[in-house]
Backbone:
C-alpha cells in the first residue's frame, strides 16, 4: 500500500543518507553536492510538517480547504538562504583549490 | 523464620570472617570460596524476601538491647534497604571474584577477605537498621573497615596517609551524625525509624531542627565526599583497585546518599534542606567533574567523577520532588553498575599494562579488545549516552533541574550548573575512552598488555550487561526495583514511566547539552593553538599532586576529540546523533498519537517521480567523481523536489525551487572550471563502508522521524494566518502575506543574510585584475554560440515583464518578491551566459552591490515607517484605488517591502555568479600567461 507519506518519508531518508555519505568525503565537490542534497531533504522535511495535501494551496477563496501556509513561508526563505549557503561553500571550495592547489577539505591529502 | 532472614543477611558476612582469614593463610582459593559463598548466601536470602518488599511492605524485627538508652537491635527491610543490600552483595560477589585474580601471590588474601567481609557486614547493617543508634554504630564500623582496606598495602606511605585522611573525615562526620541522631531521638522520643519517619512536622517545627539537620548532613556529606569534604576520596585511591571498585563506587560513598534518602521523609520539606543539600550537590557535581577532566591517573579521574555523580544524586534528593527522588534512587543503581565496571577496567589496565597513568597509555584497543569493549560501554554510560543506563537517570536529572527555571528567581542556577557539570562529564568520559584505548599503539608499555584472565573480565562483563539491559528495557529490568526503593523515600510515588525515550522536551535538553559539549571542545582546541602557536600550557592542580602525575591533559584531550582535521571529526559528531530519531519512532511515545492519522493513499503514478528522485539521488552518489554527470543527476533531484512542492499545494515553493535550481546548477558548473572534473577515489574501502553505514543509519532515522510526525495529527497555529490574511494582510496568497507582513521581520533578516553572503563572496574572491587586455579580448571573441545569443537578447525584456507580473500578483496569487527576483536574476545571468561578461557588464552598467544595499534599506525603511504612525515596526498600511480597465488593485507598504526583497534577491544572485565567473576568467588568464608568456 503506497501512501504519499511513505513516499515523502522514504525520499527524505534517501536524500539524507546520500547527503551524509557525500558530506563525509574528503574532497570539496562531493561535500557541496552533499550539502545540496541535505538542504533538499531538510526543506522537504520542514514542508511535510504542514502535512501533505493535494489541491489545497493556501490561496484564500480558491477552494474550500487550505494547506498549512507557515511551513511554506519558512521553506521559501530557506530555499533562498540555502542557495546563499551553497554559493558560499562553492566559493570557498574554488578559493581553496586556488590557494592549496588541491581540492581536499583539509587542504591536504588525507592519510 | 522469615523474620530472622534479615538478621541472617547481616550476620552471614561477619560469620565468614574468621574462616576466610584462617584458611586464607594457606589456601587462596578456599578463602575466596568461603567469602563468595557467604556473600552469595546472603544475596540468596535477600532475594528470597523480594516478594513482600516489592509489594511495598517493610519487614521490621526488633530485640531490646539497651532499652533505657533507646538502643534496640532492630532491623528493617524495605525497598530502599533492599536496593542497597542488593548492590552491596551483588557487587560484593563480583569484587571478590575479581580480587582473587587481581591480588598477587604475595598479598595476604586472607586478611583482605576478612576486612572486606567486615566492611560488607557493616554496610548491610547500615542499610538494614531500623534503629538509628544501631545504624550509627554500623556506620562507624564501615569507617574503620574502610580505613583498613585503604591501607591494605600498608608498606606504601601514600596508602597510610590516604587511609588516615579518610578515617579522619568520615570518622568526624560519623560523630556529627551521632550528635544529629541523638537530637532526633530527643525531638521524636524514639530512635526507631518507623517513628522518626512519621514525625516530619514535629521535627521541622522544633527549634533544634537546623542544628540536627546540619549534623546529619555533615555525616552524609563526609561519607559521600560532598563539597567541601570531597578531598579524602581521591587520596583513598591508593587502595587496591577491587577496594576502590567496591567502597568508592558502589557502597561506602553511597552510604551518605543512602542516609539522605533514608532520612528524607523526616527532615526534608524545608528551605534549609533544599538550599544546603541542593547547593552542596550541584557544587560538588561541577567541581568534581571539572577536576576529573584534568586527572591523569585513571583512578583519580574515576574518583572525581564519582564525587561528581554523588553530587547529582545529592542534588536530586535536595530537589525533593517525588520524581527527583525516583531519579536519585535510579541513579544510585546506575552509577553503581557503570562505576564499579569502570574501576575494574582501570584495575585491569593497571594490572596488565603496568600503569594507570593516562599519558603512558593509549592504543590499547588492539591489545585488549575485551577490556576495550566493556570499558567503553561503561564509560559511555557514565557520559550519559543512549542506549545505556546512565543516559536515563541523567536525563531525568536534567529534566528535574530544568523545572526550577520556571519557578524561582534563581531558578536558572540549578539548570546552569547541571549543564556545565554534564559537559564536563561527557568530556572526561570520552577522555577515559580515547586516551586509554584509542589512538596509536605505543612502542612500549611498562608491561606488555593483553586481556586479563576470565576472573577479572567476567565481573566487568556482568556489570556492562546490566548497563545495557537497564538502558534498553528500563521498565522491565529496573522498574520494580526502583519503584520499591523510591517508595520509602518519596512516600508517594509520582506517575512516571521509565523508558529510553521520554518526550521531545526532555530529549531536547539533553541533546542541547551534548551539542554544546562539542561546540565547546572544538573551538577550545583551535583557539588555544592559534593564539599561542603551540600547545596550551598544562594545567596544574593546586592540590593532590601526590596522587596524580603531571597535571596535564586538556591539550591532548582536545587533540583527540577536536581533531584539527575536519574529515576525522565529522563522523564522530554524526555517530551519536543520527540513530536517535529511530528510537523516537519505535518507543511508545508519551502522547500515544504516533500512527493515529491514516496515511493518504497515493496513485501508482506517484511512484514515477519518487523512483526518479531516489534513482537520481543514488546516481549522484555513484557518479560523484564524474562531476559533470553528478551535476546532471542533482538537477533531476531538484526538479522532482520542485514538482513535489507544486503537487502538494505549494506553488510558491515550486516556483522558487525551480528558479533556484537553475542558478545553483549554473554555480556548480562554474566551479568546475577551477575544480577538477574527474577524480580518483580517495577513501579506503573500510572507510566507505563505515560512512555508508552511518549514512544509512542517518537516512533511516530521518525517514522514521518524518513518518512518525506525518502520521500524527497536525495542530498548527496557521488558522490565524488563514483567517486574517485577507482582512489584516490585504492579500489572498497567505504564503506571501506571511512573508511580507506577518513574519516580515524574518524575511528582512533573511534578505540581509543573502546580501551579506554575496558581499562575503566578493571579499573572498578579491584579487588583482590581470592586466592582459589582449588575451581578454581574444577570450571574449567568437566563444559564444550564435543561436543562444540571438535568442536570449530579445527574450530578456519579455522575461523581465514576466518578472514584474509575478511580482505584482504575488500578494494574491503564487509569486512575490522572492520568485520575481529569482526569475529576473536568471534572465540577467542568461545574458552573461550567452554574450559574455564584458559585453553584458558594458550594457547593464549597474552596480549590483549597491542594488542589494538599496533593497535591504527599502525593507528596513518600510518597517521604520510604521513607527511614525505609532505602530510597531513593520506594520503595513495600504490603499485600494480603482482604476479604469485594470479594476481595483492595492498599493501599500507590503508591496514596497516586497520590492526590497526583489532587489536584494536579484542583486545577491547576480553579484555571486558574476564575481565567481570573473574570478574563473582571471584565473584562466593567469594560468594561460604562465604557460605561454
Residues:
Amino acid at each position: 500500500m503506497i501512501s504519499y507519506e511513505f513516499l515523502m518519508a522514504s525520499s527524505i531518508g534517501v536524500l539524507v543518507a546520500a547527503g551524509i555519505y557525500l558530506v563525509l568525503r574528503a574532497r570539496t565537490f562531493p561535500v557541496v553536492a552533499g550539502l545540496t542534497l541535505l538542504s533538499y531533504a531538510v526543506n522537504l522535511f520542514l514542508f511535510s510538517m504542514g502535512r501533505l495535501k493535494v489541491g489545497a494551496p493556501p490561496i484564500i477563496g480558491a477552494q474550500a480547504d487550505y494547506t498549512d501556509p507557515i511551513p511554506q513561508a519558512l521553506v521559501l526563505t530557506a530555499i533562498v538562504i540555502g542557495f546563499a549557503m551553497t554559493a558560499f561553500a562553492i566559493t570557498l571550495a574554488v578559493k581553496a583549490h586556488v590557494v592549496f592547489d588541491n581540492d581536499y577539505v583539509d587542504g591536504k591529502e588525507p592519510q | 523464620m522469615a523474620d530472622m532472614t534479615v538478621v541472617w543477611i547481616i550476620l552471614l558476612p561477619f560469620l565468614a570472617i574468621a574462616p576466610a582469614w584462617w584458611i586464607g593463610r594457606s589456601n587462596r582459593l578456599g578463602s575466596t570460596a568461603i567469602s563468595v559463598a557467604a556473600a552469595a548466601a546472603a544475596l540468596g536470602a535477600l532475594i528470597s524476601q523480594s516478594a513482600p518488599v516489592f509489594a511495598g511492605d517493610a519487614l521490621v524485627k526488633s530485640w531490646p538491647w539497651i532499652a533505657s538508652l533507646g538502643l534496640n537491635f532492630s532491623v528493617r527491610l524495605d525497598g530502599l534497604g533492599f536496593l542497597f543490600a542488593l548492590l552491596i552483595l551483588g557487587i560484593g560477589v563480583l569484587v571478590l571474584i575479581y580480587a582473587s585474580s587481581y591480588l598477587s601471590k604475595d598479598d595476604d588474601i586472607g586478611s583482605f577477605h576478612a576486612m572486606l567481609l567486615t566492611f560488607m557486614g557493616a554496610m548491610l547493617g547500615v542499610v538494614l537498621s531500623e534503629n538509628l543508634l544501631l545504624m550509627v554504630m554500623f556506620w562507624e564500623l564501615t569507617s574503620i573497615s574502610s580505613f583498613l582496606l585503604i591501607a591494605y598495602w600498608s608498606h606504601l606511605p601514600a596508602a597510610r596517609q590516604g587511609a588516615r585522611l579518610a578515617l579522619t573525615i568520615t570518622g568526624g562526620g560519623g560523630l556529627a551524625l551521632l550528635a544529629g541522631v541523638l537530637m532526633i531521638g530527643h525531638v521524636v522520643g524514639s530512635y526507631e525509624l518507623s517513628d522518626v519517619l512519621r514525625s516530619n512536622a514535629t521535627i521541622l517545627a522544633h527549634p533544634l531542627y537546623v542544628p540536627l539537620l546540619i549534623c546529619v548532613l555533615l555525616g552524609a556529606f563526609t561519607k559521600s565526599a560532598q563539597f567541601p569534604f570531597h578531598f579524602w576520596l581521591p587520596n583513598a585511591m591508593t587502595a587496591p583497585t577491587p577496594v576502590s571498585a567496591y567502597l568508592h563506587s558502589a557502597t561506602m560513598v553511597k552510604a551518605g546518599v543512602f542516609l539522605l534518602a533514608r532520612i528524607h521523609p523526616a527532615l526534608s520539606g524545608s528551605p534549609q534542606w533544599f538550599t544546603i543539600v541542593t547547593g552542596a550537590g550541584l557544587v560538588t557535581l561541577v567541581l568534581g567533574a571539572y577536576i576529573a577532566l584534568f586527572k591523569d591517573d585513571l583512578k583519580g579521574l574515576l574518583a572525581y567523577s564519582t564525587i561528581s555523580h554523588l553530587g547529582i544524586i545529592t542534588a536530586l534528593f535536595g530537589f525533593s520532588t517525588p520524581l527527583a527522588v525516583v531519579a536519585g534512587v535510579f541513579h544510585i543503581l546506575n552509577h553503581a553498575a557503570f562505576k564499579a565496571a569502570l574501576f575494574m577496567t582501570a584495575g585491569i589496565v593497571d594490572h596488565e599494562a603496568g600503569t594507570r597513568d593516562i599519558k603512558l597509555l593509549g592504543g590499547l584497543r588492539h591489545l585488549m579488545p575485551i577490556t576495550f569493549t566493556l570499558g567503553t560501554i561503561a564509560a559511555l554510560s557514565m557520559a550519559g549516552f543512549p542506549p545505556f543506563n546512565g543516559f536515563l537517570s541523567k536525563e531525568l536529572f536534567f529534566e528535574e533541574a530544568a523545572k526550577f527555571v520556571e519557578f524561582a528567581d534563581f531558578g536558572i542556577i540549578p539548570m546552569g550548573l547541571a549543564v556545565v557539570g554534564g559537559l564536563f562529564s561527557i568530556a572526561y568520559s570520552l577522555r577515559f575512552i580515547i586516551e586509554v584505548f584509542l589512538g596509536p599503539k605505543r612502542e612500549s608499555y611498562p608491561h606488555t598488555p593483553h586481556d586479563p584472565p576470565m576472573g577479572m573480565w567476567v565481573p566487568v562483563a556482568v556489570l556492562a550487561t546490566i548497563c545495557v539491559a537497564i538502558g534498553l528495557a528500563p521498565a522491565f529490568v529496573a522498574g520494580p526495583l526502583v519503584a520499591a526503593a523510591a517508595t520509602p523515600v518519596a512516600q508517594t510515588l509520582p506517575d512516571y514511566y521509565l523508558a529510553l525515550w521520554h518526550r521531545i522536551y526532555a530529549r531536547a535538553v539533553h541533546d542541547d547539552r551534548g551539542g554544546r559539549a562539542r561546540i565547546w571542545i572544538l573551538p577550545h582546541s583551535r583557539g588555544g593553538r592559534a593564539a599561542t602557536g603551540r600547545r596550551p600550557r598544562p594545567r596544574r592542580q593546586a592540590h593532590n599532586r601526590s596522587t596524580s602525575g603531571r597535571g596535564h591533559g586538556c591539550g591532548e584531550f582536545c587533540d583527540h576529540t577536536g581533531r584539527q582535521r575536519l574529515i576525522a571529526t565529522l563522523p564522530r559528531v554524526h555517530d551519536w546523533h543520527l540513530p536517535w530519531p529511530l528510537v523516537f519512532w519505535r518507543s511508545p511515545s508519551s502522547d500515544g498519537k504516533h500512527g493515529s492519522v491514516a496515511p493518504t493513499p497515493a496513485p501508482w503514478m506517484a511512484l514515477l517521480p519518487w523512483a526518479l528522485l531516489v534513482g537520481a539521488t543514488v546516481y549522484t552518489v555513484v557518479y560523484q567523481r564524474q562531476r559533470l554527470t553528478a551535476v546532471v543527476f542533482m538537477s533531476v533531484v531538484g526538479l522532482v523536489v520542485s514538482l513535489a512542492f507544486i503537487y502538494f499545494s505549494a506553488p510558491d515553493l515550486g516556483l522558487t525551487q525551480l528558479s533556484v535550481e537553475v542558478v545553483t546548477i549554473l554555480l556548480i558548473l562554474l566551479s568546475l572550471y577551477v575544480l577538477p572534473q574527474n577524480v580518483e577515489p580517495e577513501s579506503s574501502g573500510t572507510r566507505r563502508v563505515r560512512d555508508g553505514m552511518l549514512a544509512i543509519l542517518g537516512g533511516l532515522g530521518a525517514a522514521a522521524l518524518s513518518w512518525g510526525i506525518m502520521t500524527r495529527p497536525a495542530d498548527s497555529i496557521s488558522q490565524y494566518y488563514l483567517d486574517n490574511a485577507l482582512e489584516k494582510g490585504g492579500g489572498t496568497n497567505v504564503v506571501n502575506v506571511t512573508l511580507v507582513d506577518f513574519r516580515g521581520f524574518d524575511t528582512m533578516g533573511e534578505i540581509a543574510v543573502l546580501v551579506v553572503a554575496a558581499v562575503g563572496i566578493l571579499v573572498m574572491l578579491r584579487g588583482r585584475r590581470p592586466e592582459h587586455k589582449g588575451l581578454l579580448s581574444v577570450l571574449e571573441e567568437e566563444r559564444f554560440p550564435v543561436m543562444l545569443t540571438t535568442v536570449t537578447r530579445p527574450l530578456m525584456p519579455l522575461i523581465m515583464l514576466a518578472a514584474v507580473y509575478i511580482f505584482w500578483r504575488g500578494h494574491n496569487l503564487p509569486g512575490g518578491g522572492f520568485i520575481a527576483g529569482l526569475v529576473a536574476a536568471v534572465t540577467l545571468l542568461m545574458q552573461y551566459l550567452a554574450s559574455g561578461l564584458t559585453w553584458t557588464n558594458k550594457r547593464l552598467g549597474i552596480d549590483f552591490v549597491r542594488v542589494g544595499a538599496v533593497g535591504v534599506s527599502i525593507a528596513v525603511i518600510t518597517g521604520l515607517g510604521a513607527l511614525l504612525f505609532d505602530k510597531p515596526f513593520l506594520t503595513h498600511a495600504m490603499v485600494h484605488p480603482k482604476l479604469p480597465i485594470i479594476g481595483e488593485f492595492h498599493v501599500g507598504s507590503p508591496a514596497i517591502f516586497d520590492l526590497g526583497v526583489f532587489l536584494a534577491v536579484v542583486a545577491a544572485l547576480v553579484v555571486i555568479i558574476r564575481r565567481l565567473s570573473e574570478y574563473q576568467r582571471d584565473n584562466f588568464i593567469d594560468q594561460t600567461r604562465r604557460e605561454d608568456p
User: Anything to note?
Assistant: Chain A touches chain B through 89 residues (CB under 8 Å). Residues 69-100 of chain A form the longest helix (32 residues). Helices of chain A lie at 4-23, 28-48, 69-100. The CA atoms of residues 35 and 76 of chain A lie 17 Å apart.
